[in-house]
Amino acid sequence: MDASTQSTDTTGSFTAAAWDRIAPIMAEIEVLPLLQRLSDGTLPPEVFRHYILQDALYLKHYARCLAIVAAKAPDNAQVLRFLGSAQKAITVEQGLHAGFLTQFGITSADVTSAEPSPAGFAYTNFLLATAYHSSYAVALSSILPCFWIYWHVGEAIKNRPVIEGNAFQAWINTYGDPQFAAGAREVIALTDIAARTASPVERAQMTDVFVRASQYEWMFWDSAWRLETWPV
Questions:
Q1: Strand runs (DSSP E) across 136-179, as ranges?
Q2: N or C: which end of the chain has fewer CB within 10 A?
Q3: Helices marked H in 76-199
């Protein structure tokens, strides 16, 4: 995958520096077996089923994080812009989940009764705690990796040759879609706006949570590949 930001001109910005910081993490994400085999259509159905079910659980909590972050925005313009970009992402992902849950025989009862994996539980609790207890800028920085990394991965996979009959093509199309890209660009821009008025201490916290959330992104995909469950 191309390790560029694909995208948006963040030269010299907070987000450009943050993206550079996670280069080693992105290198590991790009070679994850789950993503490699999703790309070529050879991912075992039981692995994808585990992943998409965990992702559905994640999205319920992530949506609440987005709402908390929006409520902390310093002015109405940022509230509305953030809510708009968040709505785009949630709408896109909900549509994707609905199709795959049906395709892979996952019922609403399955989703209701499912337990988050250890990695998923840790990730969502990290995001919720950060959203509740941190400033707008720090909270915003913590939710950015989910937007940006999925966009990066989706764009990279989308540019590979299409595999006829790939059961996961809708996933590739979703995260390589211009609508998802627009939402990600907007959150990147909002994060840079917030960083401009952040104190040095706050900017350091923004970087810390950005890196940690990126690590959790790797953990989430890796745990799905391993069909992670609670050990006891």
A1: none
A2: C
A3: 76-103, 108-113, 118-133, 136-158, 169-175, 178-196
